[in-house]
Amino acid sequence: MPRRTPRTTLDRLRTSRRFSGFLKTASICALVAGLLSPLTQTAAAATASNDYCGGQCSDILPPGENGNATLAQILLNQAFGTQPSHAEDQLGPYASLATGYSGLTDSTINNFFNDASFGVPSDQVASSEKPGGRGDVTIVRDKKTGVPHITGTTRYGTEYGAGYAAAEDRLWLMDVFRHVGRGQLTSFAGGAAANQGLEQEFYRNAPYTEADLQAQIDNAVANNGARGQQALADVKAYLDGVNAYIDASDSGRYFPGEYDLTGHKDPITNAGTIEHFKVTDLVALASVIGSLFGSGGGGEVNNALSLLAAQQKYGVEEGTKVWESFRERNDPEAALTVHDGTSFPYGTEPADAKGEALPDAGSVTQEPLVYDRTGSAATAAAKSTSATAAKTTLGSAKRGMSNALVVSGKYTASGHPIAVFGPQTGYFAPQLLMLQEIQGPGISARGASFAGLSMYVELGRGQDYSWSATTSGQDIIDTYAVELCQDDYHYLYHGTCTAMDKVEQKNSWSPTTADSTPAGSYTMRAWRTKYGPVEYRATVGGKKVAYTTLRSSYLHEADSIIGFQMLNDPDYVKGPKDFQSAAQHINYTFNWFYADSQHTAYYNSGDNPVRAAGVDTEFPVWAQPAYEWQNWDPATNTADYTPPSAHPNSIDQDYYISWNNKQAKDYTTASWGDGSVHRGNLLQDRVKKLVAAGGVTRTKLVQAMADAAVADLRAEDVLPKLLKVIDSSPVTDSTAAAAVSKLQAWVSAGAKRTETSAGSKAYADADAIRILDAWWPLLVKAEFEPGLGSDLYSAITNNIPVDEAPSAGHGPTGSHAGSSFQYGWWSYVDKDIRAVLGENVRGGLAEKYCGGGSLGACRDALISTLDQAAGTTAAQVYPGDDQCSAGDQWCADSIVQRTLGGIKHGKISWQNRPTFQQVVEYTSHR
Fold it and tell me: What b/e string do you get for 433-460 counting C-beta neighbours within 10 Å, with b at 16 or more?
């Protein structure tokens, strides 16, 4: 049957409110009658490949596999809330785990997950098709979830089928993101402020020309021998399948309805064109995904500004000491993924820094990206959106998300390793990822792939092994100070005055049914140097400079295709060392995890440049040969990279946990916050306890993950110490005493943010949660600002935000994003409070801040701010937004599937959990 259609664009790509009421119900019914077309599919049995998981592999990816909807289906959804088949059938099971995990058993796991076994039982086949009438590939879809199971007898046919299935499930989304990757989203999907912000964010990171995109493909193929040639052949076959579906759906008029609503197709005459996909489109897509989830680093200018503020406050020596204590480059109390004591030095502080190019005070200005604004692009709201996009792009606090819990068979009940892992990629409708199974010559895998890049499974399982990833965030981005010459658009390169390259993208838009934003236009203009795009202007020692950012994966987003190809190849991956070898071919900054029936493994991927001796990765350096990456070639942006053995890696450690925490001893990540309290502790504490007891089962490991997913990190790991300070003397203030009682009861109950019962939409311990949400920012400011001073306090908050509660707007999707507690001041509060209490602190802050180090004064500050927080109403703490009314605590935390097109879904209760997730325990091996 002709299949469905997606949405409009990332949270930033929100369906216009005007759209939901733009047609009356009667006219919708009339349109639906004319647009619905009958579809016929024949059921056929699918042949399962070799599967060594014994029915113990499961996965889940909300809201559902079906990410395409015709215009008729969109209209029905908008008018009556009806859902296309398989559009949200994974959302309910996923949501239910938040309240159902305590009663979980091995036999009920698949009430909350899908059976991820290979193949489809004959009685569970919903449909079978031969895409394009080909005889060398079959796409079978199962009844429960509608996931495509692609089986090919030739390599070409297999990849053709993968492309066809991808277009069936995600065509509109793929189209959206090929335009995002080129900085052309507003011209394609509309000029909503959110769309403007999104395209600006990615264009600032990767202002590529069409020639740049093509060169990536050419280089990836040329540098990888037979595998490179095979990758290119796979991509071309995949695109043939995508384009075959475009042609079929266009002629059959079952293409995604968003093309009608955005004016690309006429719903009456069918006039208009859906452009075919080409190879460079996939590179544009890859640049978006790599930038979102796999490019650690940046933030050197912000680091320099906070260092200068610290030195201004305390003097150079003491100020540097204070800055380093907050930076926590190598905190001895940090949760580690490789926790056996093995050292992997990277990004450490040099004994004698060389080449630093710190800006003169007050000289830093951000490089503009947007010019020549007209119409709605010239409004204050549009300019504010641009400022937010720039801040998101230029900081080091990349929202990586994702977690992993992996336990060695030595500590499990069965003697086989168990893993519960997956990426947190946000919540969208349709989802950025899609599920599939691919079986063909040289490919045997099931799992998730980013839409439009699904020629291989990117996270999932093979015949007798599974793998997954979390964002690692080690620093592969450096900031260079290029000295200007002649004018603001020429710079010195190796002593020669050299012109910058100007790259522009002009966009314009007009109102459509889907997006009523008034007409407008602008030009995005990037200035590129051999050291990367210009991001700031400043003076250094009185000299005019441009600060540029150079990323090792810049112009190389396509390279990682080889690693994914290897992971899908059963003849390549036969054990943990093969897995690590495959992961070494992925240049995105990820933590990779592996489990089979006998072994577990871990590897940290990314092209880590070998820097010149003495260069401090935290700060800008001069753009001079002495401080460049070793053997750096600006023509290809290649250099020497640290060898695989220098990357954190391990096989068969007792257990692994990762929630974007520090990878290993002496391995510094670019973002701040790898200290004594990190959300990785929520996993480490639970898994460590399970391993100590032994007999770990799939149920117990899922429960550990799910319990951490509803825990408030601040309440579990920091609040008891705050209450200890308050309780150091009797609490005589009645308001504070009542608040303390509520907070203590919440801690005793487990410090969870969870419903009173499934579906109640009200939290147990609601008052305590409200109080802490209001108290945290107040107490942090009262604790630290008096000692640091307002300038330094503000500068450090630009490096790392004070809080990231579930209801806060943060990350690439704003509020209602699920992922929480990645960045915040919890480690600083923890270390400072323990120091004031006189407890042992390893790697403490340079000074005591709360109450100037006086327990009594600290207590007074905490009680004063607690009083203030207790008197803050729910409406003040949760002010409401486009999703929730003011004061609705549950709704403020809730997860929203952000519409990237026309289909909407209901909210679900908050969970801090991977979007796509696997639960695996293999029973045998090839």
Answer: bbbbbbbbeebbbbbbbbbbbbbbbbbb
